[in-house]
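ENTRY TYPE: paired fold submission
RECORD: A
CONTENT: sequence, then structure tokens
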Amino acid sequence: MPCRQTTYTKPSDFDELKACLAKRENPDQAVEDRVKAILTDVRSRKDEALLEYTRRFDCPEFDLSQLAVPPSAFEEALNAIGDEEVAILREAADNIIDFHRSQLEKSWFVTRDDGAVLGQIVRPVDAVGLYVPGGIGGETPLVSSMLMNALPAIVAGVPRLVAVSPPRKDGTLNPYILAAAAIVGITELYATGSAWAVAALAYGTDTIKPVDVIAGPGNIYVTTAKRLLVGTVGIDMIAGPSEIAILADETANPDWLAADMLSQAEHDPLAASIAVVTDQALATTLAQKLKEQLEQLPRAEIAAQSLADYGQIIVADSLEQGVEAINLLAAEHLELCVSDPWALVPKIRHAGAIFMGHACPEPVGDYFAGPNHVLPTMGTARFSSALSVQNFCKKSSLVSTSPAYVQKHGQKIARLARLEGLEAHARSVESRLGTNQGE
């Protein structure tokens, strides 16, 4: 049996699964202590600290001359990877850009009857740092992370984008990462990774200028560094292990459901793949299909561990019960593998991304369709959203009032200030009363 099977009839049935999924949080204080030491070291020793950590963990012969990727490397990478892959990357990038353009917000102003002009000014931040994982030994480059993190910032109008990615053993970056950077227009890319790279982006070093916002996925050291640096910089989100929830009725194809669950299970032993089905026969067949397909996967050991620890097939008596369970999960990815997915959309309250129907598996969104694949995990879809253009913008309120406005409302404002014991606030307004200054 690749994963547990349970039933759902009421919210309390979710308690055991919730407790199980919560184990994926990493409470290891030792990791936080190590990351704090790394942040302090990079802030103090700058490039020398980057050099030391990179030699110790990634490339023993690394030299600081290899830190900044030269401009020629981007064009060389585009030529090296082949026209077909370049075309696919460009098409995916176009789809992502088109989707995120719809997220752009405009500055706005309103004029009130009393003459006040109030508004909000939307501006991009000045600089964004992107963390791009190198994959296993640099040989499984996460090009989709480059696209999904960089393009919303570009659409937002951020003038400076800088990326970091851990080097391979020879000190170079995978050509697919370089090609993806070239396609999105990034020319400032540094061969450094883990918590020290995040520290370099936040604090700056001799070579790397600091940024305002850091985005991008990574291991526990990267995630912890981002969490500890909140307040020094903005971040996209605190991301946990990947997860998928599937709501399926009797019309679902069990072969497809098994493939979809395994698409998340192969990520990480901590990934969670959960199917909520309304048919016991489907649950039984799905379990068998998982076993059959698992044996054929290159990452079978990882996927098997994920399913054994955090996978689950849940049988609900009805779609209504299934939706209730799905909302309690608040999963990163949700597939609605039912006969009429659109009928359920109004009832789905919590999900990072919703994939509609039998012909829309999660990898469609991961790589190509356009919506962002950087999504809230660990139940945080209850209160947070996918990475978007807004992550790379900031908003300033605008207030413009006339002397007449102050004369009319000044005493009310002063009274509110004195209620809070702030006499100077009150006098600031009252100093303008009874004068015609500024008219």
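RECORD: B
CONTENT: sequence, then structure tokens
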Amino acid sequence: MTITQQDQTAAHPDILAAPDVLAGNDPVASADRLAARLAEVRAQIGQVIYGQQQVVGEVLVCLLSGGHGLLVGAPGLGKTLLVETLGTVLGLAAKRVQFTPDLMPADITGSEILEETHDGRRGFRFVPGPVFCQLLMADEINRASPRTQSALLQAMQERRVAVAGLDHPLPRPFHVLATQNPIEQEGTYPLPEAQLDRFLLQIDLTYPSEPEERAMLLATTGAHAGVALPVLGAGELVAAQTLIRALPVGETVVDAILRLVRQARPESSEDRRLSRDIAWGPGPRAAQALMLACRARALLDGRLSPSIDDVAALAQPVLRHRMALTFAARAEGATLPSLIDGLLQRLG
């Protein structure tokens, strides 16, 4: 049995609900209303997540752009809690899968089972896996085998699952927030470069500052913990993604994105040192990701069009998983963040 659009609507009725953020014909007024709602979204997330303002902003940029995110951070930094809170605040049906070496593709995508009806007829019925949700947390994705990783990443790219020759479309919206532990690498299967490119942003989590950690300590160990309330729905998120694609982008921002991405490729870089240090650079998908993310970041800050500052702020999360250094550059102590910062300085 194939899951149809009608089935998805029945399971998630708010997909086709009239979104408040697009009410009316004035795109400027719609953008202003959406910006106000997004400010409320951040406030509700702040009831549970203390500090990590940059991380929260980048995750929201990723979802508003319609993409998937790769969260990289040490254990205990709140990655799971952040995804659960996002599901609540954005009104999305969220699920979590703990990736392990023995996890099979069918454990994620689903499989067909043979069943017998009351009149004795036998047939196969498709049982959807946890990927059939709107927000999926793939916890420690690099611990699963390459075969299982590929099954998930195919669903991320194509927004559908193929089982026994039949296509089963995934719900809309559909986003994956995968996590990785950068410390413990034993027994892991690093994601290949082609699969890393399917993540819109790589979001690095760091330890909170002392004031942030103090506030978190006092708020989370008492009798009453903070609770986040729903703000948006699935239909409103889809409408917001549509509206963001309609925001205007100035020529200076477009030129800055093109210069940045093209200078990060050894084939087209004007700097010989960069050409020597970069093993491979970002493809056109990086420029597309940066363009969408800049629009989303501008609206998240209450602006109607992005600026060069948005390009500079998002260059690291967009590019650092889409390029690599040569062995000689790594031997000399070069790092990708410093190289990307050098590229940004060339933008002026």
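NOTES ON RECORD B: The domain at 248-348 is CATH 1.10.8.80 (Helicase, Ruva Protein; domain 3). The two ends are 56 Å apart (CA to CA).
STATUS: closed
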